[in-house]
Amino acid sequence: MATLGDVARHAGVSAASVSRVFNHPEKVSEEIRSRVMRAVEALGYVPDGAARALASRHSRTIGNVVPTLGIGIFAAGVGAMQKRLEEHGYQLLVAASDYDEAKEALQVRALIERGVEGIALVGHRHAPEVYRLLQTRQLPYVNTYEFDAGNPHPCVGCDNRQGAFGLTRYLLELGHRAFGIVTAPPSLNDRIAARLRGVLDCLHEHGIAVSREHVAEVAQTIPEARKAVRALLEKHPDLTAICCTTDTLAIGALFECRALGIAVPEHVSISGFSDLEIVAHLDPPLTTVHLPADRIGSTIADFLLARIDRRTGPNKIELSAKLVIRQSTGPARPAVRARRRPRAI
């Protein structure tokens, strides 16, 4: 295996210059950097990260635990975060917890054991041992994708309740009064709970009572959403609006209405939450709330880098969740649709 000394001899520079190229590239001329990197490529040299971290007390790595990479918004956030960190010479280590707090706690411990200098988590609900470990180690951390001004922990994200509240208010302004709600269980995470609360709070403020029969809690999948929407419309054929707390559920709602021959938005308006890339290309395109995943990811990186460098700044950063109006919602109309035979989609 090639050593740092081998690289220095091959490039015709000192070992200290090679070290600076890896640890402080901004302090090295472009000519020296080019010579060193050509030597690195020729020799197949890979720096010993563990040894370097032990010597410098800096691993130049950040940890990020997300619930899943199967949802585009988290994947986009990770990509933006990684890009910003790389601009500052840091690398990102990512783990997916599958919405399991116990698994997340193990992943946080593993990342700390690997010497990460900061950790980003999603949401504010975490096992108590996670917070104890982070605070005991005095490790910079930040909760993400959910802004909560009253929570004691640092955060970067959007007000999910307010976003859902604004979307529901828009539907009310269109004349809708008969609502169905399709949601993942609010116990799943605090973002879902906040969105559901936003819908219900807005309806309550406008004097509209929503019974439990009008709220379907299902797994966050398209097939489960389809079954839920079919059951809601069978029990409550007068519904003119269906609010979904995620875009995935809203996609299922659109598919099921098409299969039932129910026109969207002529007879039922459907809305989602998150603004996944695909929903702008559905038929009809989906009205939703846009979460700025790219900006969340880059802001997380900036936040943690500032804490690592002991720079001061706000402990909580709120980003805007914007209503995106598309063709899946329209003015409320009398529910005069007849029961139709399902058709293929």
Task: Summarize the structure in words.
- With 345 residues, the protein is an alpha/beta fold.
- The protein has 3 domains: 4-47, 434 Repressor (Amino-terminal Domain) (Orthogonal Bundle), CATH 1.10.260; 59-159 and 292-319, 3-Layer(aba) Sandwich (Rossmann fold); 160-290, 3-Layer(aba) Sandwich (Rossmann fold), CATH 3.40.50.2300.
- Helices cover 44% and strands 14% of the residues.
- It contains 12 helices and 12 strands.
- Helix 5 crosses helix 12 (293-308), helix 8 (160-173) runs parallel beside helix 9 and helix 10 (222-235) crosses helix 11.
- The longest helix has 16 residues, at 72-87.
Helix content: 40-55%
Largest sheet: 6 strands, parallel
* SSE topology string: HHHHEHEHEHEEHEHEHEHEEHEE
| Strand arrangement, major sheet | 2-1-3-4-5-11
Give the name of the CATH superfamily of the largest domain.
Response regulator
Number of strands: 12
CATH topology of the largest domain: Rossmann fold
Strand residue content: 5-15%
Q: What Rg, in angstroms, do the CA atoms define? A: 25 Å
Q: Which stretches are low in confidence, meaning pLDDT under 50 for 5 or more residues running?
A: 336-345
The CATH class designation of the largest domain is Alpha Beta
Give the class from helix and strand content and strand pairing: alpha/beta
Shape: elongated
N- to C-terminal distance: 58 Å
Q: Please give the domain count.
A: 3
Count of discrete alpha- or pi-helical segments spanning 4 or more residues:
12
